[in-house]
Amino acid sequence: MKYGIVAFPSKQLQDFANSYRKRYDSHYAKITPHITLKAGVTEVEDSQIESISEYVKEICHQFSPLKIHVTKVSSFAPVNNAIYLKVEPTEELLNLHNALHTERFGGKAEYKFVPHITIAQDMSSGEHDDIYGQLRMTKVDFSEVINRIHLLYQLEDGSWTVYETYRLTGEV
Description:
Layout: E1 2-7, H1 11-24, E2 35-43, H2 49-60, E3 66-75, E4 83-87, H3 91-99, E5 116-120, H4 125-135, E6 142-146, E7 148-154, E8 160-167
Antiparallel strand pairs: 1-2, 1-7, 3-4, 3-6, 4-5, 7-8
């Protein structure tokens, strides 16, 4: 089974992202807008999910709720024709990401961590350039606190569902 760990922003920010995703994101129906903390590429046996869940719970005791600030529309082009809402990286967010990528927990991340919420993907270069040219002029300014992260798993149809939700408590 594939699993991933994400943080879901507020409904207001999700609604804003979805206003673009429903037109431009091929994964719109498969998962709600989110910040990926651990990408869903890791294959695990169903029997391992409980130990993964316990490890995520341990990590969440070490981190307080995350303050995020979404500031603009950006793009991964030319590497990838994806357009996203940029989440400003904070030390706390980077540390949480790093804690979820230890040897005990699947090793280092495949890519450099760029906190973001995808709003468009799977486009041709021409389509990307046209849409990005329009969207990068959009004023974006959301500040909020995220106090939960979620362990997800992927269903056979490619959609993602929540296995468990954890509060960021900062108790340790």
